Amino acid sequence: MPIADPRPGGRAARVQQAVHDAVRALQADQDNDFITVPKIAALAGVAPSTIYRRWGDLGGLFADVAVARLRPDGPPDTGSVFDDLTAWAEQYIEESASPTGRKFMCDMVSGGADRASAIRGGEYARERVKTMLERGRRRGERVPDLDDVIDVVLAPIVYRIIFDPDDVPTGLASRLVRRLFDDIPSPHTDPA
């Protein structure tokens, strides 16, 4: 079972970074079926027991690496919620719909019965969206509901990436965001 993110800095963060880097390097050259804890440990410069103690098994480690990969530096800030959400969704598709991204997404959602990695990946996405929506509210913009963004924009993208054998259609992000904003009720004013 993956553990929560370690505190910034310190040995725990250095070990996590070294192990994640080793996993990504090995995954670039071979399928997960051929990656072993001893190979990862040797490349990362840690003992195999460190990996087992921290991540439990390879599935948990692969899921943790996938979640970390999907955590961008921060949500875009274009000056409007519509453009922020569109840019974020396009970036999400670009990073996640590549062959490597799809592999990482599948690793994240198959991380274990407790769904800890998938839930954490979802929390990262939710936090990014929440930040964009809060900025828009402060600017006085018409802003969609957080759950509507998840249901109308993110869920169809994740479905396309994980379950659809075809490439994600061009322009999907902007179409979904447009649909989301078309469904937001217009503010009405009460006559005085």
Automatic annotation (TrEMBL):
Pfam families, A to Z: TetR_C_11 (PF16859)
Keyword Transcription in record: yes
Q: Which residues bind DNA?
A: 36-55
Q: Does the keyword Heme apply?
A: no
Keywords of the record: DNA-binding, Transcription, Transcription regulation
Domain annotation HTH tetR-type: ranges = 13-73
Q: Which SUPFAM superfamilies does the protein's record reference?
A: Homeodomain-like, Tetracyclin repressor-like, C-terminal domain
Q: What is this protein called?
A: TetR/AcrR family transcriptional regulator
Which species is this record about?
A: Sinomonas terrae
